[in-house]
Design a protein that fits this description.
- This protein has an eight-stranded mixed beta sheet, with helices on both faces. It has a three-stranded mixed beta sheet with strand order 1-3-2, with helices on both faces. A two-stranded antiparallel ribbon has the order 4-5.
- By secondary structure, the protein is α+β, with helices and mostly antiparallel strands.
- The protein has a domain at 6-242 and 436-507: Amidase signature (AS) domain (Amidase signature (AS) enzymes, Alpha-Beta Complex), CATH 3.90.1300.
- The relative contact order is 0.13.
- The chain contains 18 helices and 13 strands.
- Helix 10 (301-316) packs across helix 13 (366-390).
- The chain starts with 5 loop residues before the first helix and ends with a helix.
- Strand 4 (129-130) and strand 5 (133-137) form a beta hairpin.
């Protein structure tokens, strides 16, 4: 049952076909099974209690929480040894908003340590494995959330996105990942990584579910000065299917296979899938055009992100001293205690990023590195805003293919494909709404495409994503399968209750 979408589950609950207890029990059972295979959870809440089912769509339905959201009375570690025993005394606003709607948390999901990583391998509880292929990564940092949603543990889980930490795991796991416009969802109670880049968001199995969940998470919050009043934005209602006169663009320098002289077969197939998706856009009435962006500017995306994110992280996490909270460091004075705490508590990746952040913020380096990175960020955002003067969205492939192997080269970037892998960071530079949806398979593994629009235009971005999703999912119905399966899939896919990976699970 937990593989169904939110609307279907709500109908079943209201009709008395199932109970909230049934869903909780099934979700917990699947959580324990997935944990053995994929290590997706820091905490499984076996004592999760059912709630009264109301007219609220989320009431009585289980979900997962990324472990960088503060949850009162529940372990919240950020997947770091430094907070391995930390139990907060308050709950993040976004989670409170879900609780008010009757949503039921059943676990806290593993992430890359403090969100700093794109592999799902750096959390203190170990590597998160991709449910499609246990030898492959999920990407990160919202690794456990992506794996759990893809495996049908529940219809949705919360995530956070500082560079592509919702959207790339979604692509690798064959699901939907959505980060709304910066500040639409309060970040109060979210462990800060890079405050000017951090977005709260959600991972789901359909665009409709993403719209429903964010509708219930969002809202202005006095505790987050960057939040804004979005009461006039209704994401689910915006899924009208009307895409007439919509114009989108893709970037030649990123999508042209000729720009990748050492392209792998996976990359070639991935870009072929993407071009077919553009044809589907045209078929449903969306105008698609190719545009060109200065390659030098694109090449600067990754380094700009590293400088800004590391600098902000170094500042944000200066409170992790081993004195205020968390495991206490050893030593005769605060300097020794802090040194012991940070030496033992942080992974090599985190230490490396703190060194970079400290270096670029030194007085003699600040203008050369940090300020220049901010200037490049502005140039990139301005370039994208120019595109939005003419186009409703930018559509691009996610990464260079399906999930990468867990082969020891986890945090390394191929120079030839670095822009292809890192371009979604621009969505964080500008605070733009951005959604990743499935885009078929390469070597029997899912790949994704990404749609990004201008700030505050979330309704339009989701509607374009929804129409692409439906067109893609309905195509799967032409696969030859027994008639009874075809009927069941037709009903559920058109109703938005099954994502494409679920379709193929039925066929196996």
């Amino acid at each position: 049952m937990t593989e169904f979408g939110i609307v279907k589950l709500h109908e079943m609950l209201k009709n008395g076909e199932i109970t909230s207890r049934d869903l909780i029990n099934e979700s917990l059972k699947k959580s324990h099974e997935l944990q053995k295979e994929c290590n997706a959870f820091v905490t499984i809440l076996d004592d999760a209690k059912e709630v009264e089912v109301t007219d609220e769509l989320l009431s009585g339905i289980p979900y997962g929480i990324k472990d960088n959201y503060s949850t009162k009375g529940i372990l919240s570690t950020g997947s770091s040894n430094t907070l391995k025993d930390y139990v907060p005394f308050f709950t993040a606003t976004a989670i409170k908003n879900l609780e008010k709607k009757g949503a039921i948390a059943v676990n806290k999901t593993v992430m890359d340590e403090f969100g700093m990583g794109g592999t799902g391998t750096t959390g203190h509880t170990g590597i998160v494995r991709n449910p499609w292929d246990k030898t492959r990564m999920t990407a990160g940092s919202s690794a456990g959330s992506a794996a759990a949603v893809a495996a049908g543990v529940y219809p949705y889980a919360t995530g956070s996105d500082t560079g592509d930490s919702i959207r790339k795991p979604a692509a690798y796991c064959g699901i939907v990942g959505y980060k709304p416009t910066y500040g639409m969802i309060s970040r109060y109670g979210l462990f800060a990584f890079a405050s000017s880049l951090d977005h709260c968001g959600v991972l789901t199995r359909s665009v409709e579910d993403a719209a429903i969940v964010v509708d219930n998470m969002k809202g202005i919050d006095k505790n987050d000065m960057t939040s804004w009043d979005s009461k006039d934005i209704h994401l689910r209602k915006a899924l009208t299917g009307d895409v007439k006169n919509k114009k989108i663009c893709y970037i030649k320098e990123i999508c042209d296979i000729n720009n990748y002289p050492n392209a792998t077969d996976e990359l070639k197939k991935h870009l072929e899938n993407f071009m077919k998706a553009l044809d589907k856009c045209r078929e449903i009435g969306i105008e698609v055009e190719e545009v060109s962006v200065d390659q030098t500017l694109l090449n600067a995306v990754a380094s700009t992100y590293v400088v800004i994110s590391c600098a902000e992280a170094t500042s944000n996490m200066s409170n992790l001293t081993g004195i205020i909270f968390g495991p206490r460091g050893e030593g005769d004075n605060y300097i020794e205690m802090m040194k012991d705490y940070r030496t033992k508590g942080f992974s090599p990746l985190i230490k490396r990023r703190f060194v970079i952040g400290s270096y670029v913020l030194q007085a003699q380096n600040k203008n050369r590195y940090f300020h220049n990175a901010q200037r490049v960020r502005r140039l990139l955002v301005d370039e994208w805003n120019k595109l939005y003067e003419k186009y409703d969205a930018v559509i691009l492939p996610v990464g260079s293919g399906p999930a990468k192997h867990l082969d020891g080269s986890l945090d390394m970037l191929n120079e030839d494909t670095v822009v292809l892998e890192e371009h979604m960071q621009i969505g964080n530079f500008g605070g733009f709404p951005s959604i990743t949806i499935p885009d078929g398979f390469v070597n029997d593994l899912p790949v994704g495409l990404n749609i990004t629009g201008k700030c505050y235009d979330d309704e339009n971005v989701l509607n374009i994503g929804w129409m692409n999703e439906l067109g893609f999912a309905n195509e799967a119905l032409f696969i030859e399968v027994p008639n009874d399966y075809v009927f069941a899939l037709e009903v559920d896919v058109k109703g938005g209750n099954l994502r494409l990976q679920n379709v193929f699970q039925y066929l196996l």
